[in-house]
Amino acid sequence: MSELFPAKTIALEVLGCTDPSREGEFNRWYDKVHLRDLRDTPGIVDVYRYRDVLPDLGDLGARWRAPEGRPVRYLTIYRINAPDPWLVMQRIKDEDGERAQKGRMIDCLETYETSVWDFVAYRSTLLPPVRPPTRLPDGMPEVILLVFAGMDPAKKFEHDDWWLYTHAHDLLETPGMVQCHRYLSLDPQPAEQSPNLLNVYEFDMDDPGAAFRRILEDDKNIRRVEGRFSSFSRPAKAYGSGLYRHWDVM
């Protein structure tokens, strides 16, 4: 179980290395050079990295994976402490352009999504752990499932109530899931069908794919059949939804 989550304000960046033959070079640059630059940005408390697990899981959850032909996804999580978190991420984007001119950026980096989120709610499991809890040096979760979603803003109270007292309760019955957190988008000018909710689910187990499979099966065979899904959801397009494992920085 993580020590630093849930965090008050976070930003997520979903990205990839466009040249698979240079993935090692890409990760060395990111870990040795880029992380240092990101952490020096005013308002950034710390930065963490994750790698997509779903490509290694065969046909499991195919709709959650990156589109065919796209590189393996990496996830960067920022913890932010600033009056205007959105402005902090805009500053990083501008400074990346300046760093590129100075030769401090790599030419095989592609960013797919950047989003900023504010904490709403949190729940943790009451089930006994399936193994001794993992304690990573940076205090972050070992495996997380990100679910970007949309809701009718006029029904926010009802939607949050459903998530906290029905859906989170149901999912935390999944062996190996230890915590779940809910965030609200801070995007000041959201695009049409952009997600305005983020759910982060933490796993602490040897086979997170098994927990993910259990969730998908229970959603299909139990929760939807019993009407335990919210009627306040709306379609949302997000590239970053998926299962990610903690990346050990070099």
Please provide a written account of the structure.
With 250 residues, this protein is of the alpha+beta class. It has 4 helices and 9 strands, in the order βαββαββαββαββ. An 8-stranded antiparallel β-barrel has the order 1-3-2-9-5-7-6-4, surrounded by 4 helices. The longest helix is centred in the N-terminal third of the chain and has 17 residues. It starts with 8 loop residues before the first strand and ends with a strand.
Helices and strands, with pairings:
Layout lengths: L8 E9 L5 H17 L4 E9 L20 E8 L4 H17 L7 E16 L18 E9 L4 H16 L5 E9 L11 E7 L4 H16 L9 E2 L7 E5 L4
Antiparallel strand pairs: 1-3, 1-4, 2-3, 2-9, 4-6, 5-7, 5-8, 5-9, 6-7
Q: Order of strands in the sheet with the most strands? A: 1-3-2-9-5-7-6-4
**Molecular shape:** globular
Number of helices: 4
Estimate nothing, just give the exact number of structural domains. 1
* Strand percentage: 25-35%
Helix/strand class: alpha+beta
Distance between the termini: 23 Å
Order of helices and strands: EHEEHEEHEEHEE
Name the helicity range: 25-40%
What is the mean predicted local confidence, pLDDT? 91
Low-confidence stretches: none
What is the fold-level CATH name, i.e. the topology?
Alpha-Beta Plaits
- CATH architecture label: 2-Layer Sandwich
Radius of gyration: 18 Å
- CATH class call: Alpha Beta
Number of strands: 9
Describe the oligomeric state of these chains in a short phrase. Answer: single chain
Biggest beta sheet summary: 8 strands, antiparallel, barrel
